[in-house]
Every structure is written in structure tokens, then in C-alpha cells.
Fold these 2 entries.
Entry 1:
Amino acid sequence: MNTRLISHEFEYHAPQTLQETLELLSRYGPQAKILAGGTDLVGHLKFGKRTPAHVIDIKKLTELKSISNGTVIRIGAGNNFKTVQEYFAGSIVYAGLYESIYSIGKTQVLNMATVGGNLANGSPKADTAPPLLTYDARIKLANLNGERTLDLKEFHTGPNKTVMADNEILTEIEFDALPTYTSSAFEKTARVGADISKITCAVTVIREGSVCRSCRIACGAAAPVPMRTALAEEMMIGKTVDEELINTVALQVGKDIRPPSYGRTSQDYRRHMVAVMFRDGFWRAWKQAEGEK
Amino acid sequence: MEKHTINVTINGEKYELNLAPNELLVNVVRETVGLTGTKYACGTGQCGACTVVVDGEPVLGCLTLAVTVDGAEITTIEGVAAPEGTLDPLQEAFLDTNAIQCGFCTPGMVLVGRDLLKKIPNPSEDQIRHHIKGNICRCTGYNGIVRAIKKTAAENMAQ
């Protein structure tokens, strides 16, 4: 495999506005790929995994680079990881999203890769997907005819597959601001620190004293798509939290996931690790939600 | 495949380059411009040897299409020392702490190390190791590199 160059040939477009981008997508749709940070697409072009006739570079679209915080938090899909990481640094409520980006770690990748690209390429291992799933995030897709908003949990349909049509672009990620006494955490297991995830788990806890009002749990690399673990979550609603409850729920998280049986990491390992990671993440978030360290 | 003309400034010098869309920044810097300090190693964004600084931020030259950096200011390792040859304090520190063996990772390490010191003038060891996480060294075991960054930070602080 030659990683020194890209032998595939394609036409390059660098639209300056979203409108121009949508026009290009409507013209070239099935033959086009959107280039954001390039950390996935350029590798795919080298390996011939993707062979688009047209590459549409959206790096110049300032319209996709806003980020705002109110009753709804909106993150433009074109923001790179570094910007999003800095925006959420120090947040107790959204610590899970911050930690998911921190876990990717590599300085150069954080400068290049975008949060929109992380979701839009459809990987079940996307590190930002689990925390965003626990925030009940929604995503906005646009084409020439308009815009649609859908729940992030409806977005991924299989490994590297999403509901996004050829003429659509992911423009924004949004979620409702979470109440106080909420915190989130992200746990990841990988071969080495900066590697692609073997398994990830995000937890968002809304706490009322010793009672768990709600605990949302999402896992990555745990199924063909990033997923919430519904049965485990149900066991937590309104419960007084103690060690025994969390250990029981942790086992349920391991049962809820649907890990693939191929690849470097076995199903059993993933089920076992995700239970451990849920426990670690839960206790961190639980303490943080009441301002404990 | 239509070629595109881009204008870039590399280490303070202006270049007008006529490039095919599938040309990678690392190859353009090395072969078209002739600045071979930037290294090609893994080609898949794992090792950081191809790091160049684009508009103030380190990026991977092996995963960047050169046509996308139109209008950018680029710094490569050749642009780090002063024009008359005086080394950057971090480069001096790399020599002092034996942070170099084969030298292949060094250009990327120096650029990322400088980036860290620009953002966090007095970083902790954890912060140093986290910031250079995307740069692989197979000779030194990283300790010399970490010492070099610490030494430069301490010298900056003392001033």
C-alpha cells in the first residue's frame, strides 16, 4: 500500500458559501465527497476506499464555524476539535464532550478534524458521538431545498453509513442546555493513548442529592452504530445510588451493547471493559454533579 | 483533473504553485518547493513526522491536500532558526539534552514543542507528553525530548 501519494484523480472545488456548497452537492451529489478536516477522507483517498470524482472543500465556510450557548447549545459542524475542546474546557456539565476530544489528543488532528466530520463519516467509533448522544443532541442537515433536523440517535444506520443523502451536508449539532446538578464523563479504551477506540462509554447524570434523576449512557465501538443503552438507563431512574446499584447497572451496560465479533477486540472483552468503564465514568460524573472532586 | 494555482507564504517567502488536486502538502513542500526538512514517514496521520505549521497551527502534511492551503502562511522546520543560522532556543535544548538520535521525528517534535510553549509557557510534564502525543519517536524514548521542552520553558521563565 502506497501512502506517499494519492493515485486517484478528482476535481477540486472550494466554495466560499454554504449556498455554493449546496449547489455543488446538488450537481455532483453521488460523485462527490465533502472535505472538512481531511483526517479520514484523505486517508480513504490514498487507500482507494473512496473514489469521488469531485471533492468539495468546506474549510472556508465561516457559516459552519459559529458556536453559541443559551437555552440551546449550537455547534457549527465546521468547528475543529480544538475550538470545541476549548469552548467546553472547565465545564462540569459538558465535561464528557470535552473529555472525548481530549482523548483524541493529537495536537495536529485536533487542529484539522471537525466535529461535523467525526459524525458525518458514520464511524461507530466516533469519539464525540457517545457524549453527544447522552445530551440528546440533534443534527441539522441541509440541501438546496431546505433543512431538516433529526435526533443524533437516528443519524447513524450502520458502520460508515448515515441517513444523510448525497446532496446533503451536516451543518450544525445542537442540544438543549442541561440543568444544574448535572455532569458528564467519557471513558475510552484504546491500544495506545492516541489510537482509535476499542470501546468508549459516555455517562450524563442528573443528580438530586443521593437520588439519580436520570442517567444517560452511550457507547462507541460497541455496536454497528454509536448507541444508547436503554435497559441500563431505565434501571437508574429515580433510584437512590449506592455501590450495589451501579455494579448491577454496569453489568447491564455490558449486556445492552451489541459488539461486533470481528476485528482486533473480542466481544467478551468489549462487554467486560464497558462495564468497568461505565462504573468509572459514572462515579466521576456523580461526584462532579454535586461539585465534589 | 484541473490544476489549481495557489499562493502561499512558506517561511516568509511567497510562492505561486500550480497544483493538481491530489497532491499532498508534504510532497509539495519537499519536492516542489525543495524543503526536505519536513519528513514523510507513515503517511497515515499516525506519526507526526510530516508536521508543518499552517496559519499558526501544526497540521499533518501527509493528510492535507496542498490545494486547500491557498493563502496560508506556512512554517516548516527550515523557518524555525533565524535566517543567519542561529538556532531557536528549543533546537539548542534538543542538542543539549540529547533529544535526537536518528533525527527523523525531530522536525515535527520541534514544531509541536514550540506550539506548546507558545500556548502554555510553563507546561507540566503531563501537558508536554499530551501535546506531543501525535509525534512518534522510535529512538529516544521521549525523555530527552520532554527534558528539552522543559529546559526551554525554564529558560523562558527565568527571563
Entry 2:
Amino acid sequence: MVLIATVLAASPPVIFAVLGETIAEKAGVINLSLDGLLLLTAMVGFAAARATDNLLAGCAAAMAVGALAGLVVAVASLSLSQNQVATGFVLTILCQNLAYVLGGPLSHVPGPQVAHTPVPVLGHWPILGPILFDHDVLVYASILGVAAAWWYMFATRPGLALRGLGERPASAFARGIDVTRLRYAYTLIGGAIVGLGGAAFSLLVKPGWSRPYGIEGTGWIVLAIVIFGNWNPLRGAAGAYLFVLLQTLATTLQSWMPNVPTLVFPTLPFPLMILTLLLVTLGNSEWIQRALGRLPAGTRRGILHVVHVLQTSPPASLGVPFEPE
Amino acid sequence: MSTVAAARSWKALPGVGLIASLVLTAALGAGVLALLGASPLEAYRLIAAGAFGTPQRFTYVLTAWTPLLLCTAGLFLTFAAGLWNIGIEGQVVLGAVFTTGVLRALEHGSPAGAVLLLAACAGILGGALWGAAAGALRVFGNVHEIFGGLGLNFIAGSLTVYLVLGPWARPGIASTSGTLPFGATLWLPVVHAGPLAIPGEVLLGLLALGLVRGAMRGTQFGLRLAAIGKSPRAAFRRGVPIAREMLAACALCGGLAGLAGFVLVTSASSRHQLFPLISGGDGFLAILVALLANRVAFASLLISFFFAAISTGSLQLPLQMQLDSSLSGVIEGMLVLLVLFGQGLGTRLAPRGR
């Protein structure tokens, strides 16, 4: 029970980052700058909140920087037809270093922090109350955000158009949709939501700023979670919660095994990331298909079912520029 | 008319775009410094002095240059095949780990030259194994090399920490500062030219770049890699063994990165030990170099030297101006980003159908 509450409390940054990236990639644009961007927006969010003594201003500043990074990726790839991976990679290095340089004076200084706000009435429910309704605003917002993103993508008309952007931009264009402009919009929105994730780090989960900040690498994990999540907000959120659960467990394990160097546990998620990706992508590979072909029919159907459930496939036009003829 | 002319000159003279990007980078970097209340001119002067102020600092620049050269040479192979070898950082680390292992085992009682040679081979092997692992994940497991490589980077990092604190800890104290430094017999030679001391490993870097350039231009292997990079489907139809060549590119790139790891442990100006974060971003920086050089070996030579100078010079910033040395990363990243934008702009503005 306590564990679930702990995981929920630590999840907003990862959830927001996964949602933001999922939205951008759903529209067909990879924003690879996530790892650096989370650092930069965490630093900016903290700096702005501290300067104005206003948490909303901190979140807004972080979201603005996130949107700006989205704009850079969008301009480079959509208008100037540069490789999205190249732009994103350079941007992640730039953002990370920028965060360290600009954040220098902010290292280890106290600052504002998001307050704890239990939901009245609901918070007093037995069992569910303390788990779900005894948190900070950002936790509630992240849960609602997952639901909202799923509903938008799979139950509304504009959401249908969003999926079309990433799957078949040519037919979206034929239906009169301005593909490039919408991709711009979603890349910016996605970047802003990632920025909110960064702010959720420095204003809630890991208050303050330092170098190294300790979340280095998380952005890459988030990109992997988006793949694991099959570009679906619900499955992505499940992956995010799993990752945070793992981190929480690692911290617990560490206190149980004082002999193992403390720097080893934080790396545990990375081999697991590889294994997970292997699990969800292996089904696509030729030699697995061939190996499965040799199995007896009954076993094969069982395995194929598992493979099919696990398997994920990206939006067909992810990362592919669109040129209306 | 004027934009077309500008675009044409941009295309005709790649230097115009580069100079514009350099100027813009310096201006934006000055903006960042001004935001911190620091004098941009003073900071830039410090960086320049930190790189070229004394003969010794110039030696440090050359020392920082070699790993970049080696990594960039390797990346030419993977980039040619259309692979994003972001795992190069971990490949450097594994090279350093394997090198340290051999040096520790043979440190006493064996001829130093033979030990160094063996250590270099071990470094290459370590990097190649790590590179091949990322390649195998991509080729056989469909795991994109960006994620496979990154995961392997972090695993390499924690392996180093484990070794430095555990089995290879200094007698008495186990701290993350590193393993027991190796003696001067196991340092790479230095060539003295007047007041300058030129680290011998520079030759290795230049040689590697030359060899890779030759392989890319004049061998079947190079042509096949280029074919895969252009269109894997078309290459496959023409009978190019894609899986094998991709694996080979990853392993070779890893091998060169591993050699960079060897140099990081054995260079005369290094710390002569294994320590966490030993690669210090050399692999990532080499990716920026390769992106900027756009497959031109000679360009990569100049760019990597320039980056090595900025990175070395920036180390003076925290000492004398209380600024973070990451300013070098800001400048380097900004420059590459602006050049990418410039290239896009040039293509976009250029008259079509020519």
C-alpha cells in the first residue's frame, strides 16, 4: 500500500515526459532531445520558481523552454529537412551543458516546492484514500493527463487526425489537413509537456538543483518507455509506473545490501531497458519467425499470441519527412 | 534575387555557412555568459589561453585530440552504414577497462613495450565486443542501436564503478577516485620538438583516420557500407550481406573507440588509471564532430582539433571565473546545431532543379 503511494508520488516527471514524447511521436516527429531537455527544464523550472517565488511561473517557464526545444526540432526537421535523430542528439547535448552552465549559481540552494494537497473527503477513504488522494497537485494532474491524452487520441476527431499524421500523412493531406502545421503544433505541445515533467523533478520529486542532478539518463529511458508503450498513453503510463517502481525498489534494495556500491543500483534500469525492448521488438525479427515456424501448431499459437501482445510497432511515418506533391 | 545569390554563395562556399555559424555561436555563447553576469570576452580569452597559453597546455590539447580522432574515425564506418552508434561512449570505457586489466596483470616483470602492445590489443577487443553487442542487438533483436548502445553505456559505467571500488580498489582505501596509477614505464612515448611535447598517440589517431578514409573509398567493405547507408533494401537486393557488414561496422568502430580507451589510460598526460566516467563524453563529442564533418575526413581533423582546444581551454573556467566547464559543450553543441540549420537553409533557398 505504502509502495503504491510512493510510486505514485515519484511518478509525475516520468509520466509527463512519456506523455509529451508520445504525442510528438504520434504526430510523426521524434524529439530525441529528451535527456538533456529534462535537465534543462528542471533547472529552468527551479530557477523561475525561485526568482518569482511562484510555482506556476516555474512550471510555465519550464514548459516554454520545452516548447522551444520542440520548435527547434520541428523547424530543423519539418522546414529544413534535417535528420531528426541528428538534431535531437545535438540538442540533448546542448541542453544538458546549458543546464550545467546556467544552473551553476543555483547548486544546492533552497527554493520553493510543490505543496502537499490531500483531496478533501476522498482523502479520508479507507485504503484508497491514502493511496490515490493524498498527494501533490502534479500527481493528480499526471494521472488526469494520462486519461485525457488517451481519450483525446482514441475518442475524438482531432485525435484521429493526430494519429493520421504519424501513420499516413499523405491521406491526411488529401483530406485537407495541413500536415506540417499540425506536426509543428504537436511537437511544441509535446515539448511543453516534457518541460512540465522537468519542472516536476526540480519542484517536487528531487527539489532543487545540483550538478550532476541525478536524473541523467532518465530521458533515454523515457524514449524507451514510449516504444514499450506502443505509442499508447495508457501502456506508456504503465511502463512509466513500472520504471518508477523499479527505481523505488532499487533504493530499498540498496539499504538492504550496504556492501554493494551505491552507484550500481541506479544503473539497474538500463540492462532491463535493453531486455524489455528486446522483448517487444524481437517478434518482428526474421529468425524468430522462422524458429516459430518449426514449432508444433499448438505451442506456436500460444507463443504467437504472447509475441503479438508484447510486440509494438511505431507510427508508420515516424521520423519521415512529409512533402506534399 | 539576393536570397538566391546568398544561397548560391552558401552552397558554393561551404565556408560562408561555417563562418556565419561560428560568429552566431560566439554571440549566443556571449549571451549565455552575460546571463550569468560573466564577461564573455574574458571567458573566451581564458579558453584560448587555457588551450594555447603555454607549450604544456598545447600538449594537453593534443592529448585530448587523439581519443576524438580515434572515435571519429570509427564513427565514419557506422555513420556510413546509417547506424547511430551512441554506444561509443561505453565502447571507450570498455577499452579502458580491458587495458587496465592487462596492465594490472602484467605490470611487473614483463617488458613494457610488449605489455603496452598487448594492452592496446585488449583495449581494441573490449571496445569491439561492446560495439558488436550493440550491433547484435540491432541486427538480431531489432533493438535500435541508440537504445542498445545507451543501455550498454550505462552498464559499462557501473562496471567501472564496481571494479574501481571492488576488485581493483587501491590497497587500503576504496574510493571512486580511481585505481592505483601505473608507473612511468607504462606511459606512451612523447616526442619532443623544441619547447613542444607531442604525445606519441597522436600518430595512432591520424593513422586510424587515414586507414578508415582509405577503407571507405577504396575497398569493397567501404562501398558495401555506403550502399547499406543509402538504402538497406536496395543493398539487400543486390546481395550485400547486411547483417554481417553492420556487425562488422559496429565492431570496428567499437575497436577504435576501445583504442581511445587504451590511450586514455596510457597517455603520458593521462591520469594513468581507471576511474569512473573515464571517457568524459569523448564519444558523444566525436558524434558531434562526425555530424559536422559530414563524411569528410580532412574536415573532421580540423573540427576535432578545434573541439579538443575548446574543451581543454574551458577547464580554466571553473578555476578562474567560477563558471562551469560545460560551457565548452554549449559552444560545441550550438555550433553543430547552427551548421545543421545552415545546411537546411542552404538547401531550401537554393534554386531547384539544379
